[in-house]
Amino acid sequence: MSGNDRAPRPGDAPFTERTPRVVAAKRLTRRSGRDRAERFLAEGAQAVREALAWAAAGRGRVHELFVTDAAAARNPPLVRDAVDAGVPVSAVTDRAAAALSETVTPQGVVAVCSPVDVPLAVALGDGARLVAVLHGVADPGNAGTVVRVADAAGADAVIFAGDAVDPHNGKCVRASTGSVFHLPIARARDAGEAFAALRGAGLRLVAADGYAPEDLVTADLRGDLAAPTAWVFGSEAHGLPDDVVDSLDAALKVPIYGGAESLNLATAAAVCLYASARAQRA
């Protein structure tokens, strides 16, 4: 079926990988296609549930749901919720679902959504106290995991700054486990613009830097982490450039008490964001 607000029925001929709507949706697996269409794909039952709740809250729109027969049988409430929300639900073949998937094992349920990102001023809103900034983070799995961590820590927003990965990248969306739909996300190609907006919102900019002379625990004991803070994280491979670190208000490292050489990006982000969250709630 296609183009109407009901669930697929046994007599409906499912869309194939050659059906124009599936072909159009497949273009959204590439950044250029997403930017051109101003839409992206959310794959998997969890992500689609979060997308439908996000749309129901008036924060975005789910344009269509593609689902295989097997996935519809596994997730009848999900299909029913989409139909009740007026989302067109289109049956697809397994091959069509695989064409829309960026995973080894397609889950058979994919939603076409409007972008989640908002302007910087909207993301920061009034009184933001904890923000994660991903500066030049190129790995979508790392970026999505940091979004999930920021969501769990109660952060007010996540900013993708500089030459960072697209937050709508399929792997980023999956790694966030739906958190891209929970908290404001903004993109700022000009990192300096993002830093100025954060300072203007009253946040202190702190670099997470493994080479910083001072560590997180010392700053916490001094009470620094209770202040409104924007943690700035760099790429896992190269960290933050020296000039970026020098331009921020402070730089802190996570102390390593054992023999590990370092922490990966997502783990370091979890330690830093939760330290601030705890201090701000104390």
Distance between the termini: 54 Å
Element order: H for helix, E for strand:
HHEHEHHEHEHEHEHEHEHEHEH
How is the largest sheet built, in terms of strand order?
Answer: 7-6-5-9-8-10
The coarse overall form would be elongated
Helix content: 25-40%
Number of E-type strands: 10
Q: Please give the largest β-sheet.
A: 6 strands, parallel
Task: Report the mean per-residue pLDDT as an integer.
Answer: 94
Beta-strand content? 15-25%
Q: Could you list the spans in which at least 5 consecutive residues all have pLDDT below 50?
A: 1-5
The radius of gyration is 21 Å
Q: From the helix content, strand content and strand pairing, which structural class follows?
A: alpha/beta
Number of helices: 13
Describe the structure in brief.
The protein has 282 residues and is an alpha/beta fold. The chain has 13 helices and ten strands. The N terminus is likely disordered.
Provide tags for this entry.
282 residues; alpha/beta; four-stranded mixed beta sheet; 13 helices; elongated
Verbal overview:
There is one protein chain. The chain has 282 residues and is α/β, with parallel strands linked by helices. It has 13 helices and ten strands. The strands form two sheets. Strands 7-6-5-9-8-10 form a six-stranded parallel sheet, with helices on both faces. The protein has a four-stranded mixed sheet with strand order 1-4-2-3. Strand 6, helix 9 and strand 7 form a beta-alpha-beta unit. Helix 8 packs parallel to helix 13. It is elongated and about 65 Å long. The relative contact order is 0.13. The N terminus is likely disordered. Pfam families: MRM3-like_sub_bind, SpoU_methylase. Belongs to the class IV-like SAM-binding methyltransferase superfamily. RNA methyltransferase TrmH family. It comes from Saccharothrix lopnurensis. Keywords: Methyltransferase, Transferase. GO terms for molecular function: methyltransferase activity.
